[in-house]
Write a structure and sequence with these properties.
The protein is mainly α. It has a domain at 483-515. 59% of the residues lie in helices and 5% in strands. It has helices spanning 7-11, 14-31, 39-57, 107-122, 124-136, 141-170, 182-207, 211-233, 251-271, 288-310, 312-326, 341-365, 374-401, 407-429, 435-456, and strands at residues 62-64, 67-69, 491-492, 497-506, 509-515. A hairpin with a 2-residue loop joins strand 1 and strand 2 (67-69). The longest helix is centred in the N-terminal third of the chain and has 30 residues, at 141-170.
């Protein structure tokens, strides 16, 4: 980092800077609970303050014996005389640094991290409300109060993830907007669990069922934010992720951060388990709560698959540590990650997305906890079948004009279109409910639209020269996706003619003018 960088970049640089950003949002969130000092809000505030204390400990930078507690972002250079830079006699000329990678000097750098960290910080509220409800035994008051925060947290965290995808597509040259990078995955998993929690929250609010599941989803979502913090900052993903920080000596402190809050949450949950309200009779098959519950379970399964694959480096590290202590051959127990992570995750998550679209669409057609007459059941089936036929027809037409799509892509596209159509139908039939119905429909419509956008990425094509002369012996298929354009010399591809016309440099960026 150099002195010419924008102050925002310098203030939030490195692990210490991101902890400062997290603390800032945590303090802002806590301020909302200072005014209304009822019993539940006081416990929520205590939880937020406790998390703030643990975050502050990450920035202390003091020594307890030989162990350094935290890393001080405000330490002066004269206190770091052992730093490698001082071994160079000409260190003064290099003291300002080289600055950030030009790819990171992008307007998304000003937007994406703050929004994403606000989403991370806000997960503390559903978690704290869950502990407050379990501690006080008040399982009614918190349901309405926490729903607003749960929706805000889910929306902001999802928006932050989408912004990161847009940034990757525009500037970071990842070959698309989602590469199933381990760090990307571990920001997605808490959001998926929050989404499952919100679906369960609607069940609890309308039927008083599913308290156990609701507490589980909200507690896990916050703990997985802490777990993702450990994965990202401990250096354990250094060989498998393009985003992970390097190791900086805070690994044991991060483990304590996660373990202390996990033990607290789990102990309170199981201690109060028998006091949690539970309706003994089963949900009706044709009821909205049943299908929302199924959708939440599918989301849980999705989060488990992603989290398991991403955690393989953690498993291997634990095995290596145990082999040292117990003296056994660790090689027999080590696991290898997928050779192609994108193909691995897409193969499973595609069908999970189909299940979510289908279950959510069906849930829109059926009311809560209501006995359906034979005629209503027939009408529901009729609407579902007609919508399915229309969506599959549209999906089939797309498949006909874009033959690169596979059968699984066709199924996902059809289910996404069906979800959009079902949402529009639901809104036109229930518009008397006003803004709440509109918000519900807009959310499902947006989910279907996102599924359509994701499936469109399958049709990505690489432009290759008609006569691509390989300059590398035994060149692989991946390297053939790249070729060199010579200044002023047109190059023909299968469908285009490319001409490199000019370039313009305004440090740190260089813009190339290419005619197509």
């Amino acid at each position: 980092m150099n002195y010419h960088s924008i102050f925002y970049y310098r203030a939030l640089e490195g692990q210490e800077g991101s902890f400062l950003l997290w603390m800032f949002w945590n303090a802002c969130i806590g301020s909302f609970f200072l005014k209304d000092q009822n019993r539940i809000n006081r416990i929520v505030l205590v939880c937020i303050v406790g998390v703030q204390v643990l975050l502050c400990s990450m920035l202390l930078g003091i020594y307890l014996g030989d162990y350094r507690l935290g890393s001080n972002p405000f330490v002066l250079l004269r206190h770091m005389i052992d730093a490698p830079i001082f071994s160079d006699p000409e260190y003064v000329s290099k003291i300002t640094g080289k600055g950030m990678n030009p790819l990171l000097q992008n307007y998304w750098m000003l937007i994406h991290p703050p929004v994403l960290f606000f989403g991370f910080a806000a997960t503390v509220v559903p978690w704290a409300y869950s502990l407050a409800a379990l501690t006080t035994g008040d399982f009614q008051t918190w349901v309405k109060k926490s729903l607003r925060w749960s929706l805000i947290t889910t929306a902001i965290l999802g928006l932050g993830i989408l912004m990161g995808s847009a940034w990757a597509y525009e500037a970071l040259s990842f070959g698309g907007y989602w590469a199933w990078d381990p760090v990307e995955n571990m920001s997605l998993v808490p959001w998926i669990l929050l989404l499952a929690g919100v679906h369960t929250h609607f069940i609890v609010q309308n039927t008083r069922r599913g308290f156990h599941s609701l507490f589980t989803y909200y507690i896990l979502s916050f703990l997985l934010v802490l777990y993702s913090t450990y994965l990202t900052r401990s250096g354990i993903l250094g060989e498998s992720s393009a985003h992970a920080f390097t190791q900086m000596g805070l690994e044991y402190q991060l483990v304590f951060f996660l373990a202390s809050l996990a033990i607290l949450s789990i102990s309170i949950f199981f201690r109060k388990y028998k006091t949690i309200p539970q309706i003994k009779d089963e949900e009706k098959l044709l009821s909205r709560e049943f299908w929302l519950f199924v959708a939440a379970l599918v989301l849980l399964f999705s989060a488990g698959l992603i989290g398991f694959t991403t955690s393989i480096p953690v498993y291997n590290k634990i095995v290596n540590q145990l082999s040292t202590v117990l003296d056994f051959n660790a090689m027999k127990y080590l696991k290898n990650g997928p050779i192609d992570p994108i193909d691995h995750h897409n193969r499973f998550q595609l069908w999970i997305a189909v299940c979510i679209c289908l279950t959510s669409s069906l849930a829109l057609l059926i009311p809560y906890y209501t006995f359906l007459t034979t005629e209503r059941i027939k009408t529901t089936y009729r609407i579902f079948i007609v919508t399915g036929i229309i969506s599959m027809s549209i999906g089939g037409a797309i498949l006909y004009y874009f033959p690169k799509y596979t059968f699984s892509n066709f199924v996902l596209m059809s289910s996404a279109i069906g979800m959009i159509l079902m949402t529009l139908l639901y809104f036109t039939k229930t518009n008397i409910y006003g803004i709440k119905t509109f918000n519900n429909c807009f959310t499902y419509w947006l989910w279907g639209f996102i599924m359509g956008v994701l499936i469109s990425g399958v049709y990505k094509q690489y432009i290759t020269l008609s006569q691509n002369i390989s300059l590398i012996e035994n060149e692989n298929a991946e390297s053939k996706k790249h070729f060199m354009l010579q200044f002023g010399k047109p190059s023909k591809t299968e469908s285009y003619e490319l001409n490199y016309l000019a370039e313009k440099t305004e440090k740190p960026f260089t813009t190339y003018l290419i005619s197509v």
